[in-house]
Design a protein that fits this description.
- The chain starts with a helix and ends with a helix.
- It is built from eight helices and no strands.
- The chain is 77% helix and 0% strand.
- With 231 residues, the protein is mainly α.
Length: 231
């Protein structure tokens, strides 16, 4: 299911607006949960099963902890910390799921072409393009570092917790700096930010699926606002 990058950005905008408004009734919570399930379903359609089920498990666990096992009468430092953590996860997980879907399923060429169609400044466009490539590259780098540490027998077990932090985090921090420089150099090499109008082989067009999702997310936002502030 190929979606236009403009549709994906609209999804992030609507989800971010809805999560900033607190859900105070069971109906509003149901609307928010339905909205969260849409990007999860899209991840499954794109065959990103690990991400989809991982996000779903975390979200359901946070919901269960917030509404079933914990309450406002919960006492103790541990329960207070767990309540706060669960509340943060429940509040911002929809944004995280949607943003991860956009990052994992959008090509940089498509994204740049969409930004050019929307007439956004090059500074914003290039910054967002670098960020979109930064986090997936960091994830791959961390996986490579983890494999190297496993081969050396360095893990949390066996009294090697301090070494695990040292041997993983320090290389990862240096990798972050190098990756940022490399992505910036790649953007300059591709002529991003130049005076000549950039061309693209990607043909962007809003299809039926795009209009359906735009309509669905618009309806979710309208229903949420109406039932929270009007009805």
């Amino acid at each position: 299911m190929k979606l236009d990058p403009r549709t994906k950005l609209y999804m992030i905008l609507i989800v971010s607006a809805v999560v900033m408004m607190s859900a105070t009734t069971p109906f509003l919570w149901a609307v928010r949960i339905i909205m969260t399930l849409i990007p999860v379903i899209l991840l499954i359609i794109e065959k990103k099963y690990t991400s989809a089920f991982g996000f779903t498990f975390l979200y359901i666990a946070a919901l269960v902890l917030t509404f079933v096992f914990l309450s406002e009468e919960s006492t103790g430092i541990f329960k207070s910390l767990l309540t706060g953590y669960s509340g943060i996860v429940v509040q911002f997980m929809p944004c995280l799921i949607t943003a991860w879907y956009v990052v994992r399923t959008t090509k940089i060429d498509e994204f740049m072409s969409a930004m050019q169609r929307m007439h956004l400044p090059d500074g914003i466009t290039i910054s967002l393009a670098v960020v979109m490539r930064f986090f997936p590259t960091i994830k791959e780098e961390y996986s490579s570092i983890s494999d190297a540490m496993k081969m050396r027998g360095i893990s949390f077990g066996g009294g090697n917790a301090a070494k695990m932090v040292e041997y993983r985090m320090i290389p990862l921090l240096f990798s972050c700096v190098n990756i940022g420089d490399e992505l910036s150099a790649a953007a300059i090499t591709r002529g991003l930010g130049g005076t000549v109008k950039r061309t693209s082989v990607e043909e962007l067009k809003l299809r039926v699926g795009d209009w359906l999702l735009i309509t669905a997310f618009t309806a979710v936002a309208v229903i949420f606002v109406l039932f929270k502030y009007v009805l």
